[in-house]
């Protein structure tokens, strides 16, 4: 299968009505590859557990491939990069999120696997307090880490402030969209979006002609959370998309930070509640995040680590030790992938090594040798 035909079937898989990212993965696991799904017989598809007649009708509907052909033309014409979840260059942080999009569409030049990534979200009705903090926070981060990637959603309020502050401080910034790459919403942010293509980019899971409908913003939020090492909530009322993003980030084992505000300010109710319920770390400056993430340790000159001898290590413990010997710190999902140890086995093994004083846990699901 050529690259273009493979991409055609990958796009088509995301266009099947009633087939979400989790079902798409199940189909891929059972059938084998994208093309085979569409060339399977009705009988073989019906034999797959959880696949009913209605879904089979949608899979075999010729309009799906026709729509995919149209989208492939749009992608090629506009030089849009695609990332399918089975590809090695699919964003690493998102790979480990169970509900990550099957396909991503990307226009830009930022590295989606940047060493350090911060997502900044907040209310669309931001105040001078929130706007000022966002600008100051991004400036402080840029001074310590000029290669950090800033992610947000290109919306009114805190989102656009974060993108503009990043551009002002020469940081790469990516906007995650709730629609296709054939439009910019809101349209008044078009100039900023164009500027971001030169130092950052625009990312979406939605095909062209997709309207920015309400539910799409909720889906978009999981990408904003999944791409990040840390999620910062600047301002939020007691309900809102930023709180949804914070909850998703917590479920992904990402660190969440929130800017506190006066108890009488509606725009701070959500942030204050996140802090009160221990769902977010109180944030007053970039230094708070840097210390909580242990990023400050990595800016100092590291003393070359000498191999230590530990007795009575199991085979799994030895593999983990050897991996951590090569890095300052590693995420639990990366440890699982590189060691070949499944998470149900890895987690108690890590706890045992912690009890033996061999390793120590860090925020955000990271571990390092003591």
Order of helical and strand elements: HHHHHHEHEEHEHEHEHEHEHEHHHEHHEE
User: What global shape is seen?
Assistant: globular
> Can you list the strand order of the major beta sheet?
1-2-6-5-4-3-7-8-9
Q: Work out the count of structural domains.
A: 3
Instruction: State the name of the first-level CATH class of the largest domain.
Output: Alpha Beta
Q: Quaternary arrangement of the chains shown?
A: single chain
The fraction of residues in strands falls at: 5-15%
User: Terminal Cα separation, in Å?
Assistant: 49 Å
Low-confidence stretches: 299-307
Please provide a written account of the structure.
This protein has helices spanning 3-14, 21-31, 34-39, 42-46, 53-59, 62-77, 92-95, 128-144, 158-168, 190-198, 214-226, 241-251, 269-276, 286-292, 295-299, 315-324, 332-339, 343-355, and strands spanning 81-84, 103-108, 117-121, 149-152, 172-176, 200-204, 230-233, 255-258, 281-282, 330-331, 359-362, 366-369. The chain has 370 residues and is α/β, with parallel strands linked by helices. It has three domains: 1-77, DNA polymerase, domain 1; 117-296, 3-Layer(aba) Sandwich (Rossmann fold); 315-369, Winged helix-like DNA-binding domain superfamily/Winged helix DNA-binding domain (Arc Repressor Mutant, subunit A, Orthogonal Bundle), CATH 1.10.10. It has a nine-stranded mixed sheet with strand order 1-2-6-5-4-3-7-8-9, sandwiched between helices. β7 (230-233), α12 (241-251) and β8 form a beta-alpha-beta unit. α1 packs across α6 (62-77) and α11 (214-226) packs across α12. Mean pLDDT is 91; it is low at 299-307.
